[in-house]
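[scheduler] slot 2 assigned
[scheduler] job type: sequence-to-structure, two independent chains
[scheduler] chain ordering preserved from manifest
[runner] begin chain α
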Amino acid sequence: MCAARTRTLFSCGGIVATALAASPVCAQPSAPEPPPPVAPWYENFEFGAFADGYAGLNYNLPKPQSGSNGPTRSSDITNGFALHWVGLDMSHSVDSVGATVGLRFGPAVTAYSGPDNETALQNVKQAYATWKPSSFGGRFSLDFGKFDTIYGAEAFDTQNNINYTVGVVPSLVQPFFHTGLRMGIELSESAQLTVLAVNGWNNSVDNNAGKSFGLQLQFQPIDNLGVTLGYLGGPEQDDSLTASCPDETAYDRNTGGCGNAPGATAADYTIDRGGANEFEAWRHLIDVVVTWDPADRLTLFFNGDLVTEGVRVGTVDTQVLTQTVFGGSLGARYQLTDVWAVAARGEYAKHDGDGVVSYLLGAASASFATATATVEAAIGDHLIMKLDTRADVAFALDAGGDAHEVFQKDARDTSATMFTSTLGVVVKTN
């Protein structure tokens, strides 16, 4: 209700004449704004799918065909027509909470999953929950579950790489995935910090009581240059092992072997190797990635890695031998047209290990080099074809001083070199 106002007409000898003033227009209360419409629940989901297959020709003509492309290949393992894998991806987010799931099916799953092949998780490439507290304005995130590694310059989904065949450095020197916690912090518009606390390398179920811890700093010193510096360290060796002793012997902890024990029957002994978790036996990874776009259609990258580990030998914790693995790759990609592109990559990986068999390169002293040239055609948004021509060379020497001939040739021979041509075809939804 609006009160009437009075106004003075005149004043004389104390007599005041007044009159009612016109009442102002009363302001009407504004109607409350309707709440924003709530999106249907299904609009918070994002789905994607792809199928990845290839036709490969190994000029060594190895027999049998399946799995005959040697230790340097993790994606195109077969000479002939083959399926790499099929992928299904899903993500869901509501407010500050989200989830991501990626499933893979196909021959490459075995090479990618490692120990997870024994835990019924081999087909789960990623499965993690995400929390982004609103109080941080989206600058902080926390992931929990199984997720792809943050290290290196290549992925196992070949459509995301400049070449079709996955390189020897990501295949043999770097981890593929982790299970645990991943924290992301946006330091500025051009700098991002990632922190990991995980089970280790490529295992959803840890093989020891220790954990691995990682850091990665991504920054852009200039607009067309990106630099990534990463570290990962932690115990990767088993906490325990089994020693089998025959009749008339028993396990002797002092010697780390089976000693004379008249009357004893054959038995298996579980031996505690807690020393495998000590810092001197940790595995350490240092990873550096540099990407540079010197021109609109040209991309260059460098990836370097150094890995060291003190390996517990036998059953005595005091015996530690150090192994060192390092690898590097250089790559370039040039977009010729909207459809066509060309790319090239060169790699080198080497292991030095005091006589220790490498957990990575598979020998006490091994080194590999690869060279790959690729022609790519992207037809529309859903079809990618890449033709790789690649050479793999093994330079390692075995105990006899002969070349480390790890590549199969014909039915019975071996070779230190392997030349292949691989046509990869990926069909994807987005």
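[runner] end chain α
[runner] begin chain β
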Amino acid sequence: MVPDGGQWVSTKLPLFDAHGRPSHVVTVAHDITERKQAEDRLRDALAQAEAANRSKSEFIANISHDLRTPLNAIICFSEVMLATNREGGVDQQNTEYLTGILDSGRHLLEIVNDLLDIARLVAGKLSMTEGPVRLDRVVQSSLRLVLERALEAGLNLAWSPPLTVPSVWGDEQRLKKVLLNLLTNANKFTAAGARSVSR
């Protein structure tokens, strides 16, 4: 007899008499209540995790959109000011300041794009933006972004490019991200007073 309440699974076993004929049936019941409750808790936890993940992705997409709008304005105005500054022959220091603002704005925009990539990766919609990439431009832009931090750490960061720098086929933003990570780690783990030369 299976007890009332809970969840049970039963197995029926026949018993045979001396002549090999079935005479009785024995029912063996196993209480699987705890296992079923654990499965229910696991399903609930999975549903909550998926809901939280969707909420996180939506939040990232929304906040990224809110950040991209002012960053695009900063980048556009910096580009206009830099072009005007060069045409007017204003001193080199202002050009360097504007270039730094432009590079920093682009770098922040890339961070925002990285956040969007995370959301796309979670949704299984991540794609690459491939094309011809000028490595010298990637290196120069990356060096400008880490130069100030290197100087603050007492490091001398320099780049000795070859006469010709080839272009490659790839995703420029991701290549720059890799290079920035390498340069940041180099600055972080290099002793003060050292000189780092990029080739």
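[runner] end chain β
[qc] chain β: The chain has a mean pLDDT of 79.
[scheduler] slot 2 released
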